[in-house]
Amino acid sequence: MKASWVKIRRIFYLVPLPKANYYRWLKEEREEREEREEREENKDKDFLLKKRMSEIIAFFPVYGYLRVLKQLKREGYPDNHKRVHRIYQEMGLQRWKRNQKKVNSTSSTIGERDKKAILLKALNKNQVWATDFCEDQLINGKRFRIIAFLDIFTKEILNHEVDFSITGEEVIIAFESATLKHGKPLILRSDNGPEFMSKSLNRYLNYERIKHETIDKGKPFQNGFIESFFDKRKMLMLKSSCFYYFDWS
User: Stretch 111-132: mean pLDDT, rounded?
Assistant: First the structure.
């Protein structure tokens, strides 16, 4: 039927074939051509998208597909979450999901559950700040510490300091630096570490009329927001980087 110089009407006059079969064949051929062109076009798009996703994952190895999608949107990629998730699975980039320990609510007393509910409650900015330490070491083995202050309501890191040793007085200096920029909180929440239980820090908080709230021993989930921040900081920066020295200049 590729004799284009012959009229279609003449062909059907000479060959006893129904016209519907011919037009169905034309439609199927056109659809196959369009699908083939679309596959080739999508293949080129997938190649560029896979290349950029590989670069993002190489720089941020703990990113899931949603955070990869957010980064792609910032860079102007028009792909939706279904396409990114499909390619993310094809590339085998799924993160290992840690099995969380289930907490039996009946095993804790009513007082502990009430305290947990109170500790997790923050209704306004500068109502509750959380603070904690994180430790790591330089490539020569010398350990250093990081202290950070986080607003429970806004989930914003207000200040963080790095040093080889952080005492109670240095905690006060870091806390004052945060209050100068963001104001004073009503409550400061921390664990029972010696730096936070020091007399100088408690004397300062009493003078500023800031309530010092401590979590129960062995229950870091009561200060879960700052723990989550340090967990992500370790995965994104500390575990994927080597530090030779600090330059405080």
Answer: 70
